[in-house]
Amino acid sequence: MADTTIHPSFKPLIPLYLLGAILFVLVAFYISTSGSPHWWLILLPLLIDLWAVAKHLALRTTRLIIEGDLIKYESGFAAKQQRTLVIQKLQDVRVDQSVLERMMGIGSLSLETAGETSRLTIEGIDNPGQIAAMLHDKMQHRG
């Protein structure tokens, strides 16, 4: 069976990118039509978009890999964090979605294994119910 790689969704960042772009156009229009010396106003939309790009990179460097009987969670751009779970030890698969997340088709997936005190949670993934169903199927067919 092929490996499955899951990244957090970029859908929550779309409004930030749009806000930054709209503010940029409005501020540029204001500065050009009023002859205002307040050129520094352009920094606000640039900072919003810069923050969105930083979040985008953080999301891109976070992934959950389902590889055979292993689940690997990796995150981090410069400093890396990796955690590996064995599907045979998986006890609980939980999906959490707020109303807004349900409308966007995203949610959080939490995994808990036997003998571990902490959960592994990956937030904001697309179709978390399908991922949970796939993991439940793998749990049913474990050796």
Question: How would you describe this protein?
Answer:
With 143 residues, this protein is an alpha+beta fold. It folds into 2 domains: 11-56; 65-140, PH-domain like, CATH 2.30.29. The radius of gyration is 20 Å and the shape is elongated. α1 (14-34) runs antiparallel to α2 (43-60). The strands form 2 sheets. Strands 1-2-3-4 form a 4-stranded antiparallel sheet. The model has no long low-confidence stretch (mean pLDDT 88). The chain contains 4 helices and 7 strands.
Low-pLDDT ranges: none
Helix and strand composition category: alpha+beta
The helix/strand order is EHHEEEEHEEH
Q: Strands of the biggest beta sheet: in what spatial order?
A: 1-2-3-4
The level 1 CATH classification of the largest domain is Mainly Beta
Strand content is: 25-35%
- Supply the number of helical segments: 4
In the residues, how many domains can be counted? 2
> In the CATH hierarchy, what is the architecture of the largest domain at level 2?
Roll
The rough form would be described as: elongated
Task: Give the termini separation.
Answer: 16 Å
Overall mean pLDDT stands at 88
Radius of gyration: 20 Å
CATH homology-level superfamily of the largest domain: Pleckstrin-homology domain (PH domain)/Phosphotyrosine-binding domain (PTB)
Query: Largest sheet, described in full?
Result: 4 strands, antiparallel
Give me the CATH fold name of the largest domain: PH-domain like
**Number of E-state strands:** 7
